[in-house]
Amino acid sequence: MSSEEQNPDPLFTSILVDGKEYQAPLGGRLIDFLHSIGKNIPHFCYHKGLPVAASCRQCQIESKGKGPRPGLAVSCRETIIEGMEILTDSEIVQKARAGVMEFLLLNHPLDCPICDKAGECMLQDTAYSTGQSRGRTQEPRKHFDKRKSLGDKILLDNERCILCTRCVRFFEAVTKDPQLTVLDRGDRSYLSTFMGDPLHGNYQGNIVDICPVGALTLKKFRFKSRVWFLHATETICGLCSKGCNISVETRDNKILRIRPRYNAEINDYWMCDEGRLMFDRYNLEVGETRLPSPFFIDENGERIPISIEEAFKKLSPLFLRQKEILMVLSPFATIEEGWAFKELAETLEKLGLEPTFGYYQPDPNAKGDEFLHTDEPAPNCKGLREEVGLKAIPPEDLENVNSKKVALFGFGFGELLDQSTLESIAAEGPMLYMGVRSDLFPAAKVQLASLSPMEKAGHWINCDGIKQFVRPALKAPVLAKDDFQLLTELLEAFISWEENQIDIPDEEIMGTEEVRT
After folding, report:
1. Domain 12-103, what architecture?
2. Residue pair 155/219 in contact by the 8 Å Cβ criterion
3. What's the confidence (pLDDT) of residue 68?
4. Is 511 a residue whose pLDDT tops 60?
5. Residue 445 gets which letter from DSSP?
6. How many Cα neighbours within 13 Å face the side chain of 452?
7. Domain boundaries, the chain
């Protein structure tokens, strides 16, 4: 038999794991392969996205053949070579792991009942699985600083820290901006920032995600909820054009926490703090700042709640009796909404109007960096421009426009428009505002309650041209409707009004300075 027949794939080799033969990637990380075949290898310091430290010694295995010398070895440090033979659950391995856990728990505080990490703590899980129910020492536990602020985002509890150095390596290897270190030696070692300075930068929250215990906690989430009460939804961050993959965690229909999801093409294991922490814009309470239902401004300037059918009846003559209209779609809109918006505008052209339409293209905000965050503060500009074919409407096109001839479609104008433009449009009120916030354009002639990006499904295309699916994480108010559905029904209402020529008195149509004849 030829060598090629014996080893058809030179990138893989045969190894023995617990007496069973496997084809393993030659040169691959041993701990990763063991996890891939279902072996439960506990670990604390190891993380796929970080350099190997091999300091916690929890991932030990027993070597019986080639590779590490016979005996115990840490699997995170070992690479796969031909002829390896290892045991992952032998008696010596179990004793070694239990011994490591006993040392780690020697001075660890009994904080589980009050610790935010409870329910997702690697130390807690491993202690339970290895039977660490009580300690054998009677000496008092060592005490370190608790509730130490590391800036405006992170709180450190040094008593809980097991010195895995994941956070230290994150700043050194990922952001390339070292900010944390381990000071002193032996059992006096503790985690600290350099010279006690507060942490800085837009990626601090990632060290909370990778901390295997409750030593690093996020101030915004601290004591908000036990993790087992949270419902996680896999979706996409929309606060810039990178499109980081995220997990949105909610309770009682409110977002309490956002964390990154692994995607090797886009954000790896990480996300920025802006996308992580600025979710209050989605937690709008109905009756306070949330537009609960459609509204209409009557001839006396009164804001009157109406049904969606009545809103369409008011909108049809407002649009169809105008010669020129500026229709602006939010760059938070999905690809599907972009196509519906384009069909609506093109239908108005066929009906004899001359609408100027496109998506709002915000100016760069100077928040871009060389890591993840871009300086385009919206998620789908590229998709609306290149896939849907919409024209980009820059900020200057809205600065001196007659707001009574403006129709704004979608979420995010309050954050995207500069203050002077926002106040100018809000003062007179646009012809139509389809959105989420009730305080944004209260003088808009017709206001349609639509959905936020956390309440609907669709596709965005990020700055690199990758199309991704957006999933709803929150339930919308009962009388709010999906943006795509509103655009489609609005189109049908316009066609129906034009065909039937329904007569509505001109005094009900405020602000129609140029009426078609």
Report:
1. Roll (3.10)
2. yes
3. 67
4. no
5. S
6. 28
7. 12-103, 295-467+475-508
pLDDT higher than 80, residue 115: yes
Fill in the DSSP letter of residue 84. B
Angle at 289 between CA 468 and CA 233, to 5 degrees: 30
Are the beta carbons of 106 and 137 closer than 8 angstroms? yes
343, two tokens: 């069909």
What is the C-alpha radius of gyration for the chain, rounded to an integer number of angstroms? Answer: 29
3-state DSSP assignment of residue 291: coil
Sign (positive or negative) of CA dihedral 130, 134, 136, 139:
positive
Count of CB atoms situated within 10 Å of the CB of 120: 14
- What's the rounded Cα separation, in Å, for the pair 320 and 500? 13
Enumerate residues 6+ apart whose C-beta is below 8 A from 310: 294, 296
Which DSSP letter does residue 348 get?
Answer: H
247-285 as b/e: b if 16+ CB within 10 A: bbbbeeeebbbbbbbebeebbbbbbbbbbbbebebbbbe
In this predicted structure, what is the pLDDT of residue 449?
A: 95
Q: Which residues contact 503 (CB under 8 A, 6 or more apart)?
A: none
Two structure tokens written together for 177: 């901006």
CATH code, 295-467+475-508: 3.40.50
What gap in Å lies between CA 290 and CA 284, rounded to an integer? 5
Q: What is the pLDDT of residues 432-475, one digit of tens each?
A: 999 999 999 999 999 999 999 999 999 999 999 999 999 999 99
Distance, CA of 513 to chain centre:
44
Beta pairing, strands 154-156 & 216-218 = antiparallel
Q: What is the DSSP string of 46-68?
A: --TTS-----S-TTEEEE-SBSS
| pTM of structure | 0.90
- Binning pLDDT at 50, 70 and 90, where does residue 496 land? confident
Please choose, from the candidates 180, 183, 164, the residue with its C-alpha nearest in 3D space to the C-alpha of residue 172. Answer: 180
pLDDT at 67: 64
How many Cα atoms are found within 13 Å in the side-chain-facing hemisphere of 26? 9
Q: How far apart are CA 440 and CA 422, in angstroms?
A: 8
Query: 107, 163 in Cβ contact below 8 A?
Result: no
Tell me how far apart the alpha carbons of residues 193 and 216 are, in angstroms, rounded to a whole number.
Answer: 13
Q: Where in 78-120 does DSSP place strands (E)? A: 85-87
d(CA 391, CA 376): 17
221 Rama class: left (phi>0) / alpha (psi -120 to 50) / beta: alpha
End-to-end CA distance of the chain: 90
Q: Which two tokens stand for residue 147?
A: 């509730």
List all residues 6 or more positions away from 505 whose beta carbon is below 8 Å from its beta carbon. Answer: none
Provide the pLDDT for residue 514: 43
**412 and 362 Cβ atoms separated by less than 8 Å:** no
pLDDT band for position 288 (cuts 50, 70, 90) = confident
